[in-house]
Amino acid sequence: MNTSPVQGAQVVSRIAGLLRLVGRSAEGMALAGLVKESGLTRPTVHRLLSSLASEGLLDHDPVSGNWVLGPEILLMGSVASARFPLEDIARPSLRRLAEATGESAFFSIRRGSETVCLLREEGSFPVRSFVLHEGVRFPLGVASAGTAILAFLPEAEQEELLGNWAGHAGAFAASHTRELVRANLARTRLSGYSVNPGLVLEGSWGMGAAVFDAAGRPAWALSLTGIEPRFKPERQEELGGLLMAEAHRITQQLGGEGKATRPR
């Protein structure tokens, strides 16, 4: 039996996985970290990295020793941005949120069973949380953006993830128990915005609101992050209202409509 299509698909999957790992931060990742995170053997990882570097998709930083994204990725991203003008649409909302609250504001996209942070706008408050930045991925239901999105997905999709929660959440499953996540999802559906009470990193809080596509599905999310004293209960309603107002604005610009994002 000819297995070449399967083998080819496996190689593509491995390459895509390595690119995602390297792209988690501007600093890239060391070979040892890529081996550990990917689950592949060291020779396999090194061979794939070298091939990607020869095509300009990756670079090897001689100072840090890390593998970083290459110039071809920048060119591809520039072309892709013309098709997905999300920064032009989302950046004004991020700036308004950061200016109005003093907190750091973020725009994330759903990719399969994860959220990926795309954009960031720093607030004026001098003490910040550094849990979230461009390229960071979280499983759906983890952190405020992923909670806001998962809460408004169809129940069947929620249950599919919750049914294998430990496998889905991975290292976050210990702090995000299934029962706690269910409670957070229920609260999010009631209020329209999510609250992450320091579950990813103690003392680092976040709030999020979903942005809906033209089909009425939650596809993106706005979020605010900061230190715990800035997210006291008496301030959460104010922050939640601001998040939902901007989420509704972006939803309308993208041609969608989402009940949860309508300012109350």
Descriptive report:
There is one protein chain. The protein is an alpha+beta fold. It folds into two domains: 4-75, Arc Repressor Mutant, subunit A (Orthogonal Bundle); 84-261, 2-Layer Sandwich (Beta-Lactamase), CATH 3.30.450. Helix content is 48%, strand content 20%. The strands form two sheets. It has a six-stranded antiparallel β-sheet with strand order 5-4-3-8-7-6. Strands 1-2 form a two-stranded antiparallel sheet. Helix 5 (86-101) runs antiparallel to helix 10 (233-253) and helix 6 crosses helix 9 (178-191). The longest helix is centred in the C-terminal third of the chain and has 21 residues, at 233-253. It starts with a helix and ends in an 11-residue tail after the last helix.
